[in-house]
Amino acid sequence: MKLLKSIGFYALVVIIVVVSVFPFYYAILTSFKSGTAIFQVDYWPKHFSMFNYRMVMTQGSFPLNLLNSLFVSSVVVVISLFLAITASFALARVKFRGRKLLLLTILSVSMFPQIAVLAGLFEMIRGLGLYNTLWSLILAYMIFTLPFTVWVLTTFMRDLPVELEEAAIVDGANSWTIVTKVFMPLMWPALVTTGLLAFIAAWNEFLFALTFVSNNDTRTVPVAIALLSGASEQEIPWGPIMAASVIVTVPLVILVLIFQRKIVAGLTAGGVKG
Amino acid sequence: MTGLKLTEVRKSFGNLEVLHGIDLEIKTGEFIVFVGPSGCGKSTLLRLIAGLEDISGGTLEFDGDVVNHKSPAERGIAMVFQSYALYPHMTVYDNMAFGMKLGGGGKAEIEKRGREAAEILQITPYLDRLPKQLSGGQRQRVAIGRAIVRDPRVFLFDEPLSNLDAALRVQTRIEIARLNERMAETTMIYVTHDQVEAMTLADRIVVLRAGYVEQVGTPMELYHRPANLFVAQFIGSPSMNIVPAQATRDGDALVVEPEGGRKVRLDGGGKAVGDGPIQFGVRPEDLNIAGEGQPIFEGPVTLVERLGESQLVYVEQPSSEEPLVAKLPGHLEVERGARIELSAQPGVVRLFDADGKAVRL
Question: ipTM score here?
Answer without folding.
Answer: 0.84
